[in-house]
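Hey team,

Sharing the D-3-phosphoglycerate dehydrogenase run so nobody has to redo it. Sequence (586 residues) first:
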Amino acid sequence: MAPAALIDDHSPTPDGSERPRILVPEKVSPDGLAMLTEHYDVDSRPGLSAEELLRAIPSYQGLIVRSETKVTAAVLAAARKLRVVARAGVGVDNIDVDAATRQGIIVVNSPAGNILAAAEHTVALLLAAARNVGRADATLKQGGWERSRLVGVEVGRKTLGIIGLGKVGIKVARMAVGLGMQVVGLDPYASPDIAKQAGVARLAASLEELLPQVDFLTVHTPLLASTLNLLGEEQFRAMRPTARVLNVARGGVYNEDALVRALDEGWIAGAGIDVFTSEPPAPGSSAERVASHPKVVSTPHLGASTVEAQENVSLDVCAQVREILRGGLPTAAVNAPLILPEEYRKLQPFVRLVERMGGLYTQHFVGAKGGMVGGRRFELVYHGELAGVSNTRPLFAALIKGLVSSISDGGGRDVNIVNATLIARDKGIAVSETHARDESEGFGSRAYASSVTLRVVGSGGEQQVIEGYVSGQNVYISKLDRFTANFTPEGTMVILHNYDEPGKIGNVGMVLGRHAINITFMQVASLDVNGHGHGGQQQQQQQDVVMRDGSNEALMILGVDGQVTKEVLEDLGKSEGILDVSLVRL
Ligand SMILES: NC(=O)c1ccc[n+]([C@@H]2O[C@H](COP(=O)([O-])OP(=O)(O)OC[C@H]3O[C@@H](n4cnc5c(N)ncnc54)[C@H](O)[C@@H]3O)[C@@H](O)[C@H]2O)c1
Ligand SMILES: O=C(O)[C@H](O)COP(=O)(O)O
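Structure output:
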């Protein structure tokens, strides 16, 4: 998969040769797509079959769908570069969001772009069902002129039951009140105040209480395990024989077989249905029996199909796709914790710093010594202005990405803000975050406005510390375990732990020269004699070493250019006075 969108500052096409591609296998309004074509190749291929989608998906970074395309786990598994699936609408039940989350693919939608359209369509079906509009139109077109068989009922002064008082349900309530209806709601999670403001006269406590009193019933819940078959035979039997039911939410909330029986046997009078359990209704299915029933006015999932709604949802999701593909944050992610774009921009250099601190930790402390990252406790301590940032999800994700980058197949590329928690859990990495508002909690007086400390505690209680800071857009490491440093963590680095005695630099230079390796920078990090940030026990150990050897220790950090093989590292390790060598690639 492609590098993680939210914590990756690299180009989505590492070789820079090809523009990222976005696949649109359904009819999506061109208004939004136009904002993508400048930077991305947008392939509109309405009607793409499931097999064609499976074959095509590996070369796309973005996928924009409506409700017809099934974005299954298999489709997501076949994706190689996919970073975002955008649903140009509300419902994401055609997308395997869990599978996307596991793969670090962000799923976005347009939670509000089509709610007015859906509410208006509900009212259209309400009136059509009340006045037999569908049948009247069909018979007239067939040369008939039926008036007496098509006498309808009025909706004014009647009771409308609304199950689900969310965005669409509340709008329907307002419109129904405008038609002179009395509205009774049922939604265990609804706010009574909002319902009251929308004109809902009463909230029912249960279906048993609601159903016998309504003349019309409409459902506006998502399709969940708890709402599948919410209304079956028992519920339809509990309704008035003159009642009519509507569904502009999702097929399956009414049990379709039970609905057909209820209409056939006169338990209820009619229905207005926009959504079905199979779309288009499969031949011989319960969906087909509902759609073709003479007492049902049926529409082919047209709830969101208005020019205005399609413009809204297209603009909404295309803006998010653009933002994600250029490393920003979406406004309506279904599976990513929300963080404001400006907050994210502020965090970006720290994201880079923390990712590199994680990489440095694994390669310097763990890799060289053959240890494990899992099973340790990691503490990120934010100092200065950073301590005031409440949403540090990108920093958490960056740490996980850095920690696993050198020990996972994809080089940590598949870690992002969406799946970092899952990956940390899978690898047994526990991370806590501390906001050191009071500097006494941190490293005492510090020269940087904002800095980050990574403290790691192993299973035996042993501790390591890395500290870093940001200056402008540049990131620096200011402390590596017991040593005070000041270097930019990037490229290939050899870190040598040695006795701080004359001649060391020359020896190391000679070894590297013999292997034709250039030194691009060098820095000696000396022991932090003040011991800022270290536990008392560690400081004591450090003093013991100094007194026992009569010499100091230091770290030599070398930026290098060339092939650093195992042999090079072994040769360096054999040099006089060298205690340890690690190779770090960031
Ligand atoms: N036909 C269309 O073209 C079309 C268009 C837009 C939306 N929709 C669908 O309409 C549905 C509602 O959309 P929304 O934006 O209003 O969603 P929403 O999330 O804003 O509201 C859903 C409401 O259902 C309530 N609810 C959940 N379970 C319930 C239960 N068991 N009993 C009673 N209430 C329950 C929730 O508390 C919530 O208030 C969704 O399924 C959406 O996909 C369809
Ligand atoms: O969930 C939705 O937004 C509606 O069901 C609309 O679906 P559509 O985009 O396929 O019209």
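DSSP finds 19 helices and 22 strands in the chain.

Ping me if you want the raw files.
A.
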